[in-house]
Request: fold
Amino acid sequence: MSDEPAGTVALADTVSDLMYGIAGWMLVGLGVLGIVSVVGTAMGDPTNSDVIAIPILLLFSLLSITFGVFVNPPFRRRLNRRQTITRFGRVRSVDRRVLHAVEGRSEPCVECSTRMTEGMIRRYREEFVVAGVPVYTLSEGKNHYCPDCALSDSAHNADQQSRAAEPATERS
Ligand SMILES: [Zn+2]
Reply:
């Protein structure tokens, strides 16, 4: 592991994602156990106190599952990418970020094939969206651009093309 700030931050993010992921799945597991015990009690011979306990336990189990799903980092990332609530079906999206030399990666530029350690990463996704929330990723890919090509029109044109290919992007 390097002592570079970028590496440390990435590690801290990974650890925090892992912790939230574990906490999330534990809550989901707890909720599922609760529902299983509710079903078990209801299928058996519920006593009067069970009849009161069953709806309460069921409510807590559902809350636990809901909360567990929401604290899960992959799901939170999906929520962060959510569209307007009226969106259903395939949605294409593009996001870009800068590739820094400190990341120690070497990628070929899609335009000129030069290997570079600094430039731009353009990520495109095609997702299936239900009520604005991406539920399934249909395709995902990354293109790398060297600084020269990133500044030229090619990367910009690629964005325009993906938008043109997706007429549903316009609100109707
Ligand atoms: Zn290039």
Remarks:
- DSSP finds five helices and five strands in the chain.
